[in-house]
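Posting this for the archive.
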Amino acid sequence: MEKYVAFLRGINVGGHHRVPMPELRWEFGKMGFENITSILNSGNVLFEVSENISEDKISNQLESVFGFPIPTLTRKIDEIVNIYNESPFESVEVTSDIRLYVSFLKREVDANLSLPWNSQDGSYTIIEQKEKSIFSVLDLSVAKTPKAMEALEKYYGKDITTRNWNTIGRIVKT
């Protein structure tokens, strides 16, 4: 059995696209996955499977049940653990206004950016891209409503989902 994490994009955000976690786990079980755990309410599902998985199969099944598209990106848990253990943010001074994020791409994208890249107002920095993972820092002391996702989608496209670094820590410790 191989252990994976599915990152579902855009569910339970701001009261939109509600997906109850018990129902989500049930659907993953119906697809043949085992040892299913959901982390937080934002679409992080750990599971085990003995065969190859299809992100499209998961997305299509969830859309048919919940009635709206649910883009899904998966990673082997070992990859997430490696990302976490590499400590990509160790040089960042964290304050109450600093947020650390990792974004996952469906496929590798060459954004042709010189990294680190800073937004014009200095509130958002993309510090590193490693294969299909992007590491970024948001500074809320500069702008309370920065356009971080707009910047990511502009350079990397819409086949992307982002998680707070603390969420990645919770996944690794589960």
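The radius of gyration is 16 Å. The mean pLDDT is 94.
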